[in-house]
Amino acid sequence: MRELRAFRIIICLSLVSIIYGQDLQWCNNGPITIPDPKWRTVPSRFEIITELISGNEMMELSQAFSVQRDAIATSSKYGPIQFYWNFGTNEQFEVLTAIVNQQPIPTCLRQVIEPTSETSVIQPKSLMIKPSILLGFNHRNENNTLWGNQYIGDEDLRGIPTNKFKACFYVSDIKATVSATYWVSDVTKFQAYLPSNESIILQIDVQIRNDGGRQDQYRYNVFRYTPNPSRREERQALETPAGVYCPNRTSTLPIPSNIPERVSSNSEALIPQANASIFSTHGLYDTEFQFSRFDLWFPDNFGRPQWHHYTEIHDFAVGLSYQYNHSTPVFNFRRRPMTIFEIDFALADCYRALGPGENFSLAVLSFKIGNDKQYPVFQNLNYLRLHIFETLMFTLFVRPIRISNLVVDKDDNDILVTFTLLDVPPRTGPVENPLKEASLDKLIERLDAVINSNGLAFRGRYDTKQVVLRARSNSLNVEHTTARQTIYKSSGPKITGLWIGFIIAGLVIGAIGGFLIFAKLAK
C-alpha cells in the first residue's frame, strides 16, 4: 500500500508544475458570473477527451460527467490511473495498476467524500481542476451559479474558425481563483459531427492561484467532445472496470423483494487471506424442489495461471449434500442456456463419481418420437427440448434434478431422445420427513408402459404452428420385468409319470409270473 501511495505522489509532483512569483494575467474587472449570450451551454451529461499539457509534461485525460457521478481516466508515462466520484454515496475510488510477478494487477482505493474534501481537482492538494469545473459546474457536479464568461473575439485554431471566451471565477473547495481562456467552434462558420447550433470545445488555457499564493498554468487540447452520450456509453464510462474489487463499497442496489421460487445469483469477493485473490461464485436456489447449488471459481494458491472450480450441491428434500471438485478442465459453451437445465448435470456427475459401489445408480435411457410427416421442429430445438424435459418430469412424477443430459437428435424420420435418469439416493440425511420418491426400476417400468400405450406426447413448434408428436411404441432401450403372472414350463411331470407306469407294469408282470410258478409247484 505504501508503494501505491508513493506512486501516486510521484505522478502528482511530475504533472503539477508549481510556479512561484510569476505574474499571471488575472481578470482586471473581477469575477465573471454570467455566461455570454454567444456561449453554448454545456449539458449536464457529456464526455470529453483531452491532452493535458503542463510545463514539459503531457498526459491523456478523459472525463465522463453526469449529475451525481463522474469519472476521469488518465494515461501517462507512469501508467494509467482511473478516478471515480459518486456524490450519491459520497465515495471516491482510484483504480491503480500495479505490476506483480510481471502481471498487471488493478487495485482499487476508496475514500469517503467529506464536506471538506477537494473534489474539483483530479488529485487532492493539487491545482489540476477537472474539465467540468471549467465548463460551468461546481465541485459536486451541480451548476455553478457563480460561473460565467465573456466573448473576446474570433480566431482561427488549427484551421477551424472559433469564438474566443474569457472566464474568471472562484473554486470554493480548493480556495483558488481560476482564469481560463476558451476556444470553441463558430457555429455560423463551421459545423462538424455535432447537431446544428452546437459548438465544439477545442482548447482551454488555465491559470490558477489559491489563497496561499500557490500558482499553476496548463492547457487542455480537446480531441473529442460529446454532449449527451448514449446511456450505455455513459454507464460504461462511469462504472468501475469489471473484475476490479473496491473494498467497503456502498451498495447502490436495493435489497430484492418478491424473490421467486427459483433464483440464481452471481457475486465476487476479495479474500485477503488468499493472496488478496478474487473469488467468483454462482448460486442457484430452488425452494419448490428444496434444492440449491453453489459454484466457486478461485485462482491457484501457488500463482500458476489457472483457475479452480468447486461445486457444492444441497438436496434439502433428502438431507444430502454433494461436494464436487472439477479437477478435469472441461470447458462448455452454450449459446442459449436455459436455467431449468442448470441444476442437472453436476448431480449426475456426482452419481457417476460415487458409482454403484456406493449404491448411487443411474440409467441412460433413449426412445424415439415419430415424425413421419417430417415437421421441421428442429427450427425451435430449445422449445422442443424444454417441452420434452417438462413432459418427462410430469409423466414420471420426479423432481427435475433426476433428469439430466437430455439430448435430442435426428434418426431418419424419427427424433431420438437420450437422457440420464438418476435413482433415489440410497440414504437420507437428518430430515424429519424425507421425500419419498419412486426407484429407478419403477420409473423405467412406468415410462415403458406409457410409451407402449401410445400415451407419451410432445409439442413441437415451427414457424407459427404447433404439432403434437408421440413416442413410438416399444422404442425404450431398456427391458424390465413386469407384474404379469409368469408361466413356468418343465418336462418333470411327464418323466415322473413314465417311471410310475414302468413300476406298475413290472409289478403286474411279476405277479402273473409268480402265480404261474406257484400253480406248477402245486401240481
Automatic annotation (TrEMBL):
<keyword id="KW-1133">Transmembrane helix</keyword>
<feature type="domain" description="LolA-like">
    <location>
        <begin position="241"/>
        <end position="328"/>
    </location>
</feature>
<feature type="transmembrane region" description="Helical">
    <location>
        <begin position="498"/>
        <end position="519"/>
    </location>
</feature>
<feature type="signal peptide">
    <location>
        <begin position="1"/>
        <end position="21"/>
    </location>
</feature>
<dbReference type="Pfam" id="PF25898">
    <property type="entry name" value="LolA_2nd_metazoa"/>
</dbReference>
<keyword id="KW-0472">Membrane</keyword>
<dbReference type="Pfam" id="PF25899">
    <property type="entry name" value="DUF7959"/>
</dbReference>
<keyword id="KW-0732">Signal</keyword>
<feature type="domain" description="DUF7959">
    <location>
        <begin position="380"/>
        <end position="478"/>
    </location>
</feature>
<dbReference type="InterPro" id="IPR058265">
    <property type="entry name" value="DUF7959"/>
</dbReference>
<keyword id="KW-0812">Transmembrane</keyword>
<protein>
    <submittedName>
        <fullName>Uncharacterized protein</fullName>
    </submittedName>
</protein>
<dbReference type="InterPro" id="IPR058831">
    <property type="entry name" value="LolA-like_dom_2nd"/>
</dbReference>
